[in-house]
């Protein structure tokens, strides 16, 4: 390094205390850095696991609503169809009974009998009466619905299937409410409930008959009556199971209710002796309704029931039923309870699974972050030990190798820095010795110059003081020899300094190579960090598979129709989960980019350190160049010293001829003065070079101290 005369070298003073304080404050700041609860991987994983649970909850609610609608609808439809089929069955069966009775009603012989045409032969009349009565009894035996048949008449003997007497049966029946009604229109059949006021006369009772079919003959005073078996009707109604606490019954137009026996429940349903169906508002609305079969929800005795009815043809009777609403929604409640239990269990399992997985990942990541934070703060005594067989284990292994490699590099740089500091100290000591020697030479030359001046002044007394001059010349010769010896030693010291500078230059180049290796290792770390991108790709592939699963679920739900709409909702939620998984991978990618950015910053810092080492190498080269210049100056000084010695030898030879050469003393004195000026100038140049060497060695020493302080920040 070349400096102008009296110009001091400029270099930046290193403040090791301030730099160390800066790193310590930065480490504390990094430790205080925290994330919000929703930015933590732990929270994101738990939310990710809870998302399917939310989908299950939505699915459960939708399934419950769908199941409620479908089950209740099916139950309503089933009950309505059952009652409708029962009504149709009664319509058909009672229609068959009416057809059978109509055979007797339209029978010509029977009409002739009651018209009195058989009276011409009493025997024939009795035979016809007995045969017809027997035919009626046979019809009763073959038809379970028929209980009894009566053909009552005041014109002739009545035909009955019971043991009833014939005395005024027709007259008494026609006086009853039923008789008065059929008398109004003989062109149609009338259906009634059991008639208690006639049961005694007809030798029957209301418990054995459920319905009564009656019609008046168009001619004469005759009517036909058929009792429908109460037992047969109850058997039909008993076979219909509407569920627990349900009521089904046949209600006639005149208010008779035929209900299967369940006295305990029926007594709880009735208020006093009031009928259950007849006369109630919902029953009257059903009577006036044009629909043959329908249902409605009613409130009966502060309980909700499903009221269902089916009209029995043109009989005026209806099959009525009341089913507790609790029976209908009972199955739905079971589905609701099961769904609730499944959702609770799924939520607990999701929370436990998410907590375990996220806790494991967070623990490993926090451990590696703490280790890397210490390493970033310069503490390379830490060790990264993670016993995992997944991608985090691979990352931890690579980070551990990186820390070990950087630790070795820093150790080597530190050793080189120590060697550089020792060499710098040696150069500083040598430069001080050289400055002192140069100063002695300068003083010696000053003394020579003073002697020459004195010689010039006393040239007139030259002869008288020849002996004294001869002694002084001898002294000068001795001093010159000493100067020559000092110069030889200085030349050797300069050669040693050049050799030390060469070694220092090689060490600096080795430091440059080490910093290059450090940069390469950090760049390798950057490549390793980029390899995590492959893991993100795997996660993206899983998200794509999840999307495919969502598509398949949508297809299956489309195949299932309305029953698969719940699966369609799940498919949509799975797709949302896949999109959130992609978003999470993008966040991870952002984290990796931050790592790459920090790695690039580390490379930049290492490159700056490399520049500093290059500057040190330049300083060493400049120092070596200064030593080379000094060596040339020493060679000039040696030549001048040789010239002085030759002149001194000439002076010895000329001492004998002094008296003859006294005239030439002045000229020799002038030459000697010129030579002394040259030597003085050379000594001044040599002193300047020594000063520059001393300043360069001081700068080199400061650089070595700066490197040592920088390396002391690392703990190995």
Automatic annotation (TrEMBL):
SMART domains: HAMP, MA. GO terms for biological process: signal transduction. Residues 430-680 form the Methyl-accepting transducer domain. The chain crosses the membrane at residues 45-64. PROSITE patterns: CHEMOTAXIS_TRANSDUC_2, HAMP. GO terms for cellular component: membrane. Belongs to the methyl-accepting chemotaxis (MCP) protein family. This is Methyl-accepting chemotaxis protein. It comes from Mobilisporobacter senegalensis.
């Amino acid at each position: 390094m070349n400096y102008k005369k009296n110009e001091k070298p400029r270099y930046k003073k290193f403040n090791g205390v301030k730099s160390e304080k800066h790193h310590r404050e930065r480490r504390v700041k990094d430790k205080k850095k925290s994330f919000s609860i929703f930015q933590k991987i732990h929270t994101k994983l738990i939310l990710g696991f809870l998302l399917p649970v939310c989908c299950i909850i939505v699915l459960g609610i939708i399934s419950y609503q769908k199941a409620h609608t479908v089950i209740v609808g099916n139950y309503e439809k089933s009950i309505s169809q059952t009652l409708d089929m029962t009504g149709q069955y009664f319509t058909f069966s009672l229609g068959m009974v009416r057809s059978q009775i109509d055979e007797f009603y339209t029978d010509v012989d029977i009409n002739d009998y009651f018209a009195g045409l058989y009276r011409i032969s009493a025997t024939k009349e009795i035979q016809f009466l007995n045969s017809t009565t027997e035919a009626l009894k046979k019809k009763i035996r073959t038809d379970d619905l028929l209980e009894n048949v009566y053909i009552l008449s005041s014109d002739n003997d009545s035909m009955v299937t019971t043991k009833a007497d014939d005395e005024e049966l027709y007259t008494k029946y026609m006086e009853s409410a039923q008789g008065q009604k059929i008398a109004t229109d003989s062109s149609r059949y009338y259906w009634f409930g059991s008639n208690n006021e006639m049961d005694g006369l007809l030798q029957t009772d209301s418990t054995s008959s459920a319905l009564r079919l009656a019609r008046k003959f168009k001619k004469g005073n005759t009517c036909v009556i058929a009792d429908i078996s109460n037992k047969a009707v109850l058997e039909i109604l008993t076979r219909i199971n509407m569920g627990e606490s349900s009521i089904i019954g046949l209600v006639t137009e005149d208010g008779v209710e035929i209900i299967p026996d369940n006295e305990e429940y029926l007594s709880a349903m009735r208020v006093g002796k009031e009928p259950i169906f007849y006369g109630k508002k919902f029953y009257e609305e059903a009577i006036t309704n044009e629909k043959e079969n329908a249902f409605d929800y009613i409130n009966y005795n502060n309980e909700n029931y499903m009221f269902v009815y089916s009209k029995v043809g043109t009989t005026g009777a209806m099959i009525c039923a009341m089913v507790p609403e609790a029976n209908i929604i009972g199955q739905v409640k079971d589905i609701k309870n099961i769904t609730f239990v499944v959702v609770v269990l799924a939520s607990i399992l999701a929370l436990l699974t998410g907590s375990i997985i996220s806790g494991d990942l967070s623990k490993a990541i926090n451990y590696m972050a703490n280790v890397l934070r210490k390493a970033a703060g310069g503490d390379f005594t830490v060790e990264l030990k993670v016993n995992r067989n997944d991608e985090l284990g691979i990352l931890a292994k690579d980070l551990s190798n990186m820390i070990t490699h950087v630790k070795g590099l820093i150790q080597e740089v530190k050793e080189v820095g120590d060697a550089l500091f020792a060499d710098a100290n040696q150069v500083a000591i040598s430069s001080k010795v050289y400055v002192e020697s140069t100063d002695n030479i300068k003083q010696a030359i000053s003394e020579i110059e003073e002697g020459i001046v004195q010689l010039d002044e006393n040239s007139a007394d030259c002869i008288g003081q020849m002996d004294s001059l001869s002694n002084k010349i001898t002294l000068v010769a001795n001093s010159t020899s000493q100067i020559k010896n000092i110069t030889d030693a200085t030349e050797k010291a300069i050669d040693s300094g050049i050799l030390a500078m060469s070694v220092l230059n090689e060490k600096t180049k080795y430091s440059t190579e080490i910093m290059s290796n450090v940069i390469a290792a950090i760049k390798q770390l950057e490549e390793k960090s980029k390899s995590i991108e492959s893991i993100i790709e795997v996660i993206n592939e899983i998200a794509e598979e999840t999307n495919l699963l969502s598509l398949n679920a949508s297809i299956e739900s489309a195949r299932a129709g309305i029953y698969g709409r719940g699966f369609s909702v799940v498919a949509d939620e799975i797709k949302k989960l896949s999109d959130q998984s992609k978003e999470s991978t993008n966040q991870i990618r952002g984290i990796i980019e931050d790592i790459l950015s920090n790695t690039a910053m580390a490379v930049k810092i290492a490159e700056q350190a490399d520049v500093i080492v290059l500057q040190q190498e330049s300083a060493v080269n400049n120092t070596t160049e200064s030593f080379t210049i000094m060596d040339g100056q020493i060679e000039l000084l040696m030549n001048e010293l040789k010239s002085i010695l030759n002149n001194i030898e000439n002076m010895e030879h000329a001492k004998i001829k002094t008296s003859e050469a006294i005239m030439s003393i002045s000229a020799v004195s002038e030459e000697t003065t010129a030579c002394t000026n040259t030597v003085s100038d050379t000594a001044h140049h040599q002193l300047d070079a020594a000063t520059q060497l001393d300043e360069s060695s001081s700068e080199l020493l400061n650089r070595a101290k700066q490197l040592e302080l920088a390396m002391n920040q690392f703990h190995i």
